[in-house]
Amino acid sequence: MFEKKSKDVTFYEAECFKIDASKKTVHCRSAVGTNLDGNGDFMLDYDYLVVALGATVNTFNTPGVLEHCDFLKEVEDAQKIRRSVIDCFEKASLPNISEEEKRKTLHFVVIGGGPTGVEFAAELHDFLVEDLVKLYPAIQEFVKITIIQSGEHILNMFDERIAAFAEEKFQRDGIEVATGFRVVRVSDDLITMKSKSVGEEVSVPYGMAVWSAGIGTRPVIMDFMQQIGQTNRRALATNEWLRVRECEGVYAIGDCATVSQRKIMDDISMVFKMADKDNSGTLTLKEIYDVLEDICLRYPQVELYMKSMHMLDIADLIKGAIGDAHKESMVVNIEEFKKALSHVDSQVKSAPATAQVASQQGNYLAECFNKMDKCKEQPEGPLRMTGGSGRHFFRPFRYKHLGQFAPLGGEQAAAELPGDWVSMGHSTQWLWYSVYASKQVSWRTRVLVVSDWTRRFVFGRDSSRI
Question: What is its EC number (predicted)?
């Protein structure tokens, strides 16, 4: 990626274990000792820092999870899972293993029914029924996959039609879906879960367990949040320009951060004063229209609220708040203005922890850095409602949801796309293939990915142990 840009970029493969905001330095540690003293530690100074460390696994302090479960976060996790699956089949093939032990060894449990857990269960099912059972035909009857989900349905962040379709497909495929159960502890051979409806505990034997039940904060991020006073949070809080609050020159994107959209009711008096250019104590529709674009840029929940209420214009929003005496003149005072916007902040929502959010944030931040000098002279952002006059240098970051996919195995997928369009089946899987390939960073990686798919179609998946 850096070669294509022909820019002066230096890359270090090292772990950042501390961020010192007061001294504007990051403390790093290489996996191989590169310093003179051999410990691999070094420091880097920065003018601007972008924190994009992602998240770690959240076990919710469930006993035994870290010791006995596999995870889906790092490349090393994928290699470990691959080895574990092959080892389970090899162990179950031994002549001195009882049928009961074979059923336990070939019971693969996925804890967490979100998109990641569902996609993994589907891919694992395809790998087992399309490839491994051909190599181990004598034990295929003992193979079982179970998904444990604490909610009432899997894929509960998708449209309910997609959740129902996925559950029906998994039932046909023989994948057991245990909903309404919360895992309370994991031992080396048993998973104990508790029914949320009746409170009864159930223990199930397993051969391999994969934990995909949530994300947590990395220790280096927790330490950084302690430094800057952002305690008792799950992620770094940034403003709408992705700058970390209370920290100059530090930006954060991806799963390690969350954008804190400012509420308009917190600034309503300043917004009113800014719009009231003649200081009359009232606002006309013209005065509101003059600053409407800036208000919608700074507080996008205003526009979202009007769309959700099927309002065509700001005038529709104002009419519902003013008294009959003002309806002819359409002039509002501060109290009527507050009343009109009182429910707008209900549309403030956090962006999901997905790759497309991080990708859009990275593109946005790169554009801001590239045009920083130009925007300091010619600001393109909205008027400053608080903290001074003039305009913000940049437009705030706006996440644009492009839809989400859930591959369900058997060359079928489900998609929820903008415009409330829901698609399911084989055609959606091909749509997923095209989107996935198009999102690769270069033509080289696109060709490699497509060639891997082609090789899998022709020859099957590689079952060698890494």
Answer: 1.6.5.9
